[in-house]
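Hi, here's the filled form for the chain we discussed.

Project: internal
Contact: R.S.
Residues: 557
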Amino acid sequence: MRELKQFAGICLLFALAACGKSSTPTPTPPVNPPTATSFSFNTLKVDGVTNGLTYNNVGKAPSIEISFLAAVDHNSVNNALTLKDRSGAMAPFMVTYKNGDSTVVVAPTLGAIQKYTLSVTTALKSTKGGFLQSGVDVSLTTAVDPNDKFPTISDDALLELVQKQTFKYFYDFGHPTSGLARERNSSGDVVTTGGSGFGIMALVVGVNRNFISRADGLARMQKIVGFLKTKAATFHGAFPHWLNGATGAVQPFSALDNGADLVETAYLIEGLLTARQYFNGAGADETALRADINTIYQNVEWDWFRQGNQNVLYWHWSPSNGWAINMKIAGWNEALMVYALAAASPTHSIPKEVYDNGWAQNGGMKNGSTYYGVQLPLGPAQGGPLFFEHYSFMGINPTGLTDAYANYEEQAKNHTLINYNYCVANPKSYNGYSANCWGLTASDIENGYTASAPNNDVGVIAPTAAISSLPYTPTQSMAALRFFYYKLGDKLWGDYGFYDAFNLSNPWFANSYLAIDQGPEIVMIENYRSGLLWNLFMSCPEVKTGMKGLGFSSPNL
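And the returned structure, exactly as it came back:
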C-alpha cells in the first residue's frame, strides 16, 4: 500500500512538473517597425508669387520656396534637387530651410534670357524616412537684363552704325571670286541671286555713305557684273535661285528647282538697275558697267515665262524638269518686282493683261478686311510675313503709288501696323512680345526656317521685320531697333549687324546671317533716311514706262 502511495506521489510530481513547463509563455517573433509614410509637394513660390510650375521674366537671383507636407531630410536634398539650363549644364544655387524644414528655399545664380528647369525627384526624403510621392519640375525663364549693353548714341548715329555693320556682310564677306552675296554665313561657295541683288543695293549705300570709296565700289561691281555676264548659268536669260560663287554653276535649291527662278532674277535685276543709275559717270569703266548691266537685263526672256503665252508669269523652269513646279507668280506677295521689270523690259516685255489676269487676278488679290483695327487693302488674312512689303519695295517707292487695285503706300503701312498690333496684342502669350519687341517675317527658327506671320506665329522675332519697315512705321520701328541694340545687343549684335532671329519665350538666339534679311535692313534704313535707292530705281526710264503701262500712277513715275 505504501509503495502504491509512493508511485502515485511520483506521478503527481511529474504531472505538476509537466503542467508547470506548459504554462511558460512561448516567445513571439519580433514585429517590424511601421513603414515610413511618403509625403507630397505642397506649394511653390518664386519671389513671393505663386503661378503654378511655370515662371517667366524671372530675375537673375530669385528666391524659390518649395514647400512640402513634411519636414525634409537635409542630407537627401543634394541628390534630389537639380537646376539645369537648356543645354543640361548645372546652375549654381544655395539651399536654406524654413517652416520647420518643410520648406526648401533655393537661391540660384542665373543668366539673363535663359530657360532653366528646377527638378525635385522622388529621392527626396522626410525626416521620418518617407520618400516624396511624385517629382516636381519647375520651369524658369529669366528676364531681359534692363541695362543698356552699349553706350547711348543718337538715333541717326545708331542707324548709321547698323548700316555700316550690316554692310560688312556683303562687302567683307562677299564671295572672293564672284563678289556675290553668300546665302548665309555658313554657306561656303553657295551664293544667292536675289540676296546678291540686295547686296548690290547695299553696295550703293556703302559708297554713298563713304563706308568704302567709289573706286572700290566700282571694282566690286565690275567683278559681280563680269561674273554674271560670263560665268553664271542662265536659262532664257534668267538666273537660278542659287549659284556656285566660284564656278557659276547651278546649285540646286531643291530636287525640281535646278534651273531658272524668275523672282530671284527680278531681285538681282532690281539691284543691277539701281547700281546702273548710281554709277553714271562718263568715264570708260562706268560706261562699260552700265552697258553690261543693260545686256544682262535685256537677255531675260520675261515673256517666255508665260509658259505658252498664258496671261500669267511662272516662277520656275528647269532644263531637266521643265515646268514641273508649275507655280504661278500671283499676288499679293513679295513678287511685284517681277511684273514691273517684265513690263519694263526693252526686249521681252509683257502686256498689261498679264499683270491684270496673272498678278492681280482681276482684283482677286484684294482683301479689304480689318485686323487689329487696321484695314488691309491686299493679300492674305492678317497680311502674311512682312517681307511682302520689303523685297520689291526696296526699289519701287510705294509713296503715292496707286493703280486700279490699291494704294501701295497704304498697303505697306497698314500691313506693317497689323503685324505690329498683332505682336502687341500677343494672342499666343509669347514671352517678350511688346511694343518694343515685334516683327514677324521669314527667318531662321531654332532647328529650321519658317515664314512667320500672324497666322504662323512660332514665337520668333526677326530684327529685319521691324527695321526694314522704318519707312512705313518709323516710330514703332525705331523703338524696336533701340530695344534690339541696347537691351539685347549682347546676344543679338555681331560682326555683320543683328543676327537673324531670336525667341524670348523659349530662349534662343540665332548665330546666323542671311543675305535676304541683312539686305533689306541696310537698304530700307537708307530709304527712310534719304530715299536714295527709291530715287535711283524709280529714275530708270524703262521702269517709268513699264509701270505706267501697267496702270500705275505716282509722283515718282
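Let me know if anything looks off before we file it.
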